[in-house]
Amino acid sequence: MGRATLPILIALAIIIFNPPGIPSQPPIVPGRGNSSEEIQQLKRQYIKLRTELKSRRMLKSILEVDANVDLRYIASQYGLQRLPEFTNLSDEQISAHLQDLEHEFHIRPLIYGSDDLEEIYREPPDDPATNIPFVTDDRVLKASKSVVAIISKEVMVPNGDSWTLTTIPLTQVLSGTQQLCDFDCFFNAQCADVRGTGFLVEDQVIATAGHLVQVGVNGYADWLESVYFVFEYVMEAEGRIKTSFKADEVYRGIEVLADHSSEGADWALIKLDRLVTGRDPLLCRKYGKADENNDVYMLGHPHGMPMKYSGPGRILDNDPCHYFLSDLDAHPYNSGSPVFNAYDNQVEGILARDAGNFAEFCECYATAVYNSQMGTAGVEVTRSVLFKRCLEWPDHIFIESTVPTAIVKVTTSDGSEFLAPIPVGTAPVELPYSDMGVLLLGNIDECWIPYFPLPGELWKVVPSSYAGMNVMEKVCE
């Protein structure tokens, strides 16, 4: 460590190790660099300070909701710790110490540059200056009512016409494999056995990520029987999670209408057991691509927590046909989350692959900070045009041609085959989609090239670089 930073560290040590009410720690010795053990002491002090401040604010919020709450039970449920050594320190003093340490060690439990997660409250706090950021935009709050958590049936306990959800601290889930740091933004979080996120696209249809849907020996039946699709898994108010759900908030899936989890096209459509009432299907893009100059945001259930808002984010790469890349903060079980255009509030796509995870920090794990060494350019968002066209044309694909003689061989669902000529320069030819998923393009010498179009897609026959050969390419609208 350079000599130029030594005076700063000495001053920092005096502030952190010997503030009023904080027991003395071994001081940093002037005239030499700091040992790794001394740096670890500073970091451990940071963890303790952050835990104390978060515990104070959480307890204050809970007591404002219910003054007679069992504080011992609440402390155990939320992992709250009040430390006697900080009794004589005010919240402002602790905050000042934390800011000094954060500046010195560049501590940020974030993913892409800033902590963009906000709570979705059904009863927002009266004080807008609360420590926990929350959504106030009415458009976002309305959209959140059409988002579902895909929750294991094992943690949804029926109680007459309602259900009770069992939640546990996130730290308890990770304990044994990853001990979550006390200062992490999720340290006090509660979570449930959530398999992923989805959202309403028709009155009885949910869209989600295709990789969440599991196929077994009984097809989709076992997976559909193992989960509920639950609306309104949110924070009812600050410090109070919604764990009781009415009949019109809990649904079963009865059929997987489409399931595609190939690279870049990761989406599925699931039919619910009945029509959803009181909620509007989300408006989704049907043609073209998102405007990369507009911000995007996401609603979902990271790590199985009550719904969170992530944003605003940017589109980093809009060139791929089936998906785009974004810098939205995304974590495991955000998969299937709707990603919205912040300008007109329509869904641009489905969160398919997250980048969020925990990285080792000192003697615990904290939310990883994104950097270029991770090898991840951004999170992948499957474009909504894929499933919207499938909803409109679930049984058809469309082929057009720029060459005089184009013939495709179609395999139908019953296994029979027929040949279809594709005239040049005309409107696209509508062909039946087959769950066999294969379309063959004829070429010279009985050479048939296979393609795998999805329902509703438009493909074009074009000449290749080889003489006499044609190929098909997907038309990205």
In short:
This protein has 477 residues and is of the alpha+beta class.
Task: Give structural notes.
With 477 residues, this protein is an alpha+beta fold. It folds into three domains: 3-105, no CATH class; 117-391, Beta Barrel (Thrombin, subunit H); 393-474, no CATH class. It is 19% helix and 31% strand. It contains eight helices and 32 strands. The protein has helices at residues 6-17, 36-65, 71-78, 91-105, 138-144, 170-174, 221-226, 384-392; strands at residues 117-119, 147-152, 156-159, 162-165, 168-169, 190-191, 194-202, 205-208, 227-231, 235-237, 240-241, 244-246, 250-251, 253-262, 265-272, 296-300, 308-313, 315-317, 323-326, 338-341, 347-353, 358-361, 364-367, 379-383, 396-401, 407-411, 417-421, 429-432, 439-442, 448-451, 458-463, 470-474. An eight-stranded antiparallel beta sheet has the order 1-17-16-20-21-24-19-18. Strands 13-9-2-7-8-15-14 form a seven-stranded antiparallel beta sheet. A four-stranded mixed beta sheet has the order 28-25-31-32, with no helix packed on it. A hairpin with a 6-residue loop joins strand 31 (458-463) and strand 32. Helix 1 runs antiparallel to helix 4 and helix 2 packs across helix 4. The chain is elongated and about 85 Å long. The relative contact order is 0.11. Mean pLDDT is 76; it is low at 1-34, 106-115 and 371-375.
Task: Name some characteristics of this structure.
32 strands, alpha+beta, eight-stranded antiparallel β-sheet, 31% strand, 19% helix, 477 residues, disordered N terminus, elongated, Thrombin, subunit H
